[in-house]
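Chapter summary example: a protein plus iron/sulfur cluster.
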Amino acid sequence: MKLKIASFDFTCCEGCQLQLANGESTLTDFLELLDIRNFRELSSEQYNDYDIALIEGSISRQDEIERLQAIRQQAKTLVAFGTCACFGGVNSLKNKFPLNETLAEVYPEMPVETLLVRKISEVVKVDFSIPGCPVNKEEVERIMVCLATGSLVTLPKHPVCVECKARLNTCLFELGEICLGPITRAGCNAVCTTGKTPCLGCRGPSEEINMPAFVELIRERKLSLDDLQEKIAFYNAFGEFCSHEA
Ligand code: SF4
Ligand code: SF4
Ligand code: SF4
């Protein structure tokens, strides 16, 4: 039986949904597994009966709270889909400034209703999370197959460094950069560091991270602790680790 699935976007860029819609080489096989009930990037048809809801984006308006709660009531399984949904994502940078100042700066001539940004699990129960900015298409497809076959859904426990080393990359620390690969959950195939861009931790912390040791590494290499703090805060993905004493 096909999985009845729906996907809904909240405060976000819709890049995560686009990852799925763009998977042309595997899209047909992928759709064989799914009965798309509501997914505006894939189909104009919309139905309200679905078992799995993919939630993309964070929550930053009152009407989004109400819409999300209604989706939660309908869905048997609710998935936080992408870094915005899992952690708040880049949208959370707004929370660092007084709301009225942000509104005056960004929307000086237009009244805009906005709240402090929240991740999905701060509003409704989340059954599991697929991090990534954007999500990794292969990982999403693997998880959907797990759901369709009733298998256990897992994410990699190891850090991005493992994937980075497997791709024979030169470590960016050797080039004087701060890279969050040692503390970030793998699963993206080290896409940024392979392109010589340091990891900013969009997939959140890997299991059993050793933040004090990582901070010590930054100190030993005489790199900036302020830069480290800024990188860790970028996606709001490190929760309790965001407030570590750098
Ligand atoms: S996680 Fe990144 S790609 Fe996905 S919706 Fe948010 S900003 Fe866009
Ligand atoms: S570049 Fe980053 S991800 Fe790659 S090995 Fe170095 S610290 Fe780890
Ligand atoms: S390398 Fe880091 S920032 Fe880039 S996709 Fe992977 S986890 Fe995200």
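Key point: The longest strand covers residues 3-9.
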